[in-house]
Amino acid sequence: MTGRWHDHRHTIIAELAENGAGEETIREIVGHVSKEVLRDYLHVRMKAKRDALEKIVTKSSEQKRS
Predict the structure, then answer these.
(1) Taking the alpha carbons of 33, 36, 41, 47 in that order, is the dihedral positive or negative?
(2) CA 45/CA 29 separation, integer angstroms
(3) Domains contained in the chain, number
């Protein structure tokens, strides 16, 4: 793996969050990150945002059909 640890830390935190890991779990995995600093790291990617919204739309459509 190449690059800076800081870059990888951002990536792993974002991926953990996108996959539903809670803040305490993320903090335990990546080390001593305060809640305030963790919020700075939690940059949810556009795809994750789209996926989350799509789930709401799909669920709403399915409920209307029932």
Answers:
(1) positive
(2) 20
(3) 1
How far is the C-alpha of 62 from the C-alpha of 60, rounded, in Å?
Answer: 5
In this structure, which amino acid lies at residue 30?
A: V
**CA–CA separation, 42 and 46 (whole Å):** 12
Per-residue pLDDT in tens (0 to 9) along the chain, 66 residues: 577 777 788 888 888 888 889 899 999 998 877 888 888 777 777 778 888 899 999 888 888 887
Answer for the pair 38, 27: CB distance below 8 angstroms, yes or no. yes
Domain that holds residue 47: 5-65
